[in-house]
Design brief:
globular; Maf protein; 5-stranded mixed beta sheet; 6 helices; alpha/beta; 169 residues
Length: 169
């Protein structure tokens, strides 16, 4: 599979959001704001990008976007359960239409046998026509150094967002 061009993906997301008069938010841990940087690198992004939460610590996840302490204790910060709560929490706090979240182990340290370096959990959230929140989660395992893992995470999260919410290839 060809790696999608990040600039092209961001431009397509922008077109879909503007055409549908929708906005989005990000909640990031392992990427440290890299997704938001990629989105706001496009001129005019203030028309469709609302804000970003960089919730690197568990405390930030709890305080800023409502991730439950019980979820963190039960599953750990790098889990689909936390990615889901990050996405839904940022969606509700920002009152946007879509949210994207990532939490993972970028390395070079911090990995365990259960959660190795390169493991990243994703969450994408939106609202139904009945204005109820829903989220899609997924886990991926990337290879490479810290920068490579973070870049792969950024590209993958945005490519999946485009595909899942706008059915674009």
């Amino acid at each position: 599979m060809k790696t999608p061009d990040l600039t092209e993906v961001v431009e397509k997301i922008a077109i879909h959001l503007v055409e549908n008069q929708k906005t989005m938010v990000t909640a990031e841990s392992c990427t440290g704001g890299g997704i938001a940087f990629s989105l706001t690198d496009l001129p005019g992004s203030s028309n469709w990008f609302d804000r970003a939460y960089v919730t690197y610590s568990n405390q930030a996840k709890e305080q800023m976007i409502g991730v439950k302490k019980e979820t963190l204790n039960a599953f750990g910060a790098v889990s689909e359960a936390v990615a889901k709560e990050m996405a839904i929490g940022s969606l509700l706090d920002s009152q946007t239409d879509y949210a994207l979240s990532v939490t993972g182990v970028a390395g070079p340290g911090g990995g365990t046998p259960e959660k190795p370096v390169g493991m990243v959990c994703f969450g994408w959230a939106g609202k139904t026509k009945q204005n109820r929140e829903f989220a899609i989660t997924e886990t991926q395992y990337f290879q490479g150094d810290r920068q490579s893992i973070r870049q792969q995470t950024i590209t993958y999260s945005l490519s999946c967002f485009l595909q899942d919410f706008f059915d674009d290839s």
